[in-house]
Amino acid sequence: MLSRKVADLLQRELDTSIVVENRPGAGSTVATGQLARGGRGADHTLLMASPGHTIGASLYPNLRYDPVADFAFVRNVINIPNVMVVPASSPYSSVAEFIEGAQTEDLTFSSSGIGTSIHMSGELFKYIAKLDLAHVPFRGSGEMLPALLSGDVDVSFDNMPSVYPHIQAGKLKALAVTTPEASEFLPDVPSIQQAGKDYGLENFETYAWFGLIAHKSFPEAGMAKLQAALDNVMSSEEFKTFLPQFGAQAGQVVGDDFRQFIQNEVAKWAEVSEEANLKR
Fold it and tell me: Which domains, ranges and CATH numbers included, belong to the chain?
């Protein structure tokens, strides 16, 4: 949905045709690998990258591309908070209560699959807080949410759009958001940084980010024109009114700053993956 909306707005801004092509597989590494190979069309092909771009580098050690060196970084487009949620029946109503419970009880956290931002948010939380939470992966949110709602698992770090209706309906309790600051969509819910500072979580930060990248050979003049067009797209009312359905915020980092963000994320997930023995 995001890719198609950005493509629609961008082609109007650039007065050109943009074709959106889905290339799923292996946590987005299939599409990324195709872009990295370059060749014909590399000077006018973009990829809507996501956390899989940085997480995949730690899970799949035999990738035939470098997630930083082989690409040009256009800009971060949106960021979607993950939310630490427990079933309505859970005895825990705060991050502190959950951590203290997890220190003495055998608790579980669920995800929509290994290597997703949901899974890795849980692994990061577990790693920093020094907890022994068991990971329960499901095949997508369609299977994961019923298990969480019923109390078959104890906690999840799901994306905002998936859990927001259930929080509003009182079926899930939101303990914290994974971004450094509270979300405007859940203004009374603290961040994990705020709620977990007594447990070493004062620097905890993760979210589902999405941003455009290109092959490293993408022409500089084209890059400048593209970034200017994206600035106009992202400042448009149509784009701004599109964001709330994702519980998202517009991205802020562009070019070299976006590259540095990616580099930092690669290093972070490599450390977490090593600790959790996740390499495949």
Answer: 2-79+207-276 (3.40.190.150), 80-199 (3.40.190.10)
Q: For the whole model, what pTM was predicted?
A: 0.91
What are the structure tokens assigned to 27, written together?
């946590």
Residue 147's nearest CA partner among 101, 195, 206, 87 is 87
> Which parts of the chain have pLDDT scores under 70?
25-27, 39-40, 279-280
End-to-end CA distance of the chain: 29
pLDDT tens per residue, range 14-41: 999 999 998 776 667 788 888 888 866 7
Q: Mind giving me the DSSP string for 28-76?
A: GHHHHHHHHT--TTGGG-EEEE-THHHHHHHH-TT-SS-TTTTEEEEEE
Q: Phi and psi at residue 134, in whole multiples of 5°? A: -90, 130
The Cα 260–Cα 279 span in angstroms is 23
